[in-house]
Amino acid sequence: MSSFIIEGGHRLKGEIFPQGAKNEALQVICATLLTDEEVVIENIPDILDVNNLIALLKDMGVEVQKLSPDTYSFRASAIDLEFTKTEDYMKKIAALRGSIMIIGPLLARFGKAIVPKPGGDKIGRRRLDTHFNGIMKLGAELVFDEKKQLFSLSANHLRGQYILLEEASVTGTANLLMAAVFAEGETIIYNAACEPYVEQLSKMLVRMGAKIEGIGSNRLTVKGVTRLGGCRHKLLPDMIEVGSFIGMAAMTASEVTIKNASIENLGIIPESFRRLGIAVQQQGDDLYIPPQEHYTIESFIDGSILTIADAPWPGLTPDLLSVMLVVATKAEGCVLIHQKMFESRLFFVDKLIDMGAQIILCDPHRATVIGLGDRFRLRGMTMISPDIRAGISLLIAAMSAKGKSIIHNIDQIDRGYQDIDLRLNKLGANIERT
């Protein structure tokens, strides 16, 4: 198990470029299974989850070439469907949450798909229902082998339907969209997720020959085609990394410029940090975070305590709530962090409390942060990263803390953040990997 040893109190200074968006990468890489022609994808992040998905596609028979450090070519002209019945396939796909999105492409192109039940995903059950219910409405048959914990889908012929999703699931929308491109007739997906990454997937599919209307909205209309061709696609920068860098700069009173942030695709992320009192300045397509010794949390107009809550796009992404919670510990004032969409995301706050933060965990979904400003500084300690988002939040806390901290299980952080220690050390951080 790898660990970080962090010496807190070092200020950062300089420019940093966000990596390509992990959540978009998982979608568009799966979409390469829809054609036997070459698809080139640029700005792919070198992170564990994405690398594992690329390795899985190689095992399935996809010809993959690395054209540059962040650009890959995919050609799925010789898929080995027998491999999808092997124990090796089952083991690899079960360990990779994003691999659920191979269902839509495999079913649409080959008429069948097999996936094991994902393990250890406490927030995944409703998402799987959204995936399967939508695809079954297109005409697929689902069989669940309870003994082997396997889902098998098959369809001789997919037909377009009007589908109202029970939740605006990003991965569920992506899976259904990829299945619908080959469905006969017209498919309407209502209450579709409209995150920039789904918009990016839709634009890529259109360049491949798909017919999709309503891109960027929550009502997608798909007119089925018989085949798709190749294309070239470039990933957006990762909005979660952008938000994480804003939080790091604020907590360490640092001067950081986040380059090429694709501000138009960040939604309300910059403004949400501004409500915590952080100066976030736009300079072209860059975000400049000036050094701030102090920042004060806003109140609502009537003077009541600010609430920051997650919501489907264009609301605030839930992946940044843990970062904002950490940032609020150093602010002046109080804020209620309300994690509406998922359970257990706030359970890492006990570690922040041990570091000296004033936080009341109200229930699994809500935490009240009492920011003490200059009267407070986190103290270093040893802790374990429970997941990607909590892990990066604990790293931010450790970078601002007094003394040294050790974070174990940083493989979790590596799943979402490319060489984060090396990149931050170039800006002045002191992070050692062991």
Automatic annotation (TrEMBL):
Signal peptide: none annotated. It comes from bioreactor metagenome. Its main location: cytoplasm. GO terms for molecular function: UDP-N-acetylglucosamine 1-carboxyvinyltransferase activity. Its EC number is 2.5.1.7. Pathway: Cell wall biogenesis; peptidoglycan biosynthesis. It is an enzyme of class 2 (transferase). This is UDP-N-acetylglucosamine 1-carboxyvinyltransferase. The keyword Acetylation does not apply. Residues 7-420 form the Enolpyruvate transferase domain. Belongs to the EPSP synthase family. MurA subfamily. Transmembrane segments: none annotated. It catalyses: phosphoenolpyruvate + UDP-N-acetyl-alpha-D-glucosamine = UDP-N-acetyl-3-O-(1-carboxyvinyl)-alpha-D-glucosamine + phosphate. GO terms for cellular component: cytoplasm. InterPro entries: Enolpyruvate_Tfrase_dom, Enolpyruvate_Tfrase_sf, MurA_subfamily, RNA3'P_cycl/enolpyr_Trfase_a/b, UDP_GlcNAc_COvinyl_MurA. It holds the Pfam family EPSP_synthase. GO terms for biological process: cell division; cell wall organization; peptidoglycan biosynthetic process; regulation of cell shape; UDP-N-acetylgalactosamine biosynthetic process. SUPFAM superfamilies: EPT/RTPC-like. It is found in: Cytoplasm. The keyword Cell division applies. Keywords: Cell cycle, Cell division, Cell shape, Cell wall biogenesis/degradation, Cytoplasm, Peptidoglycan synthesis, Transferase.
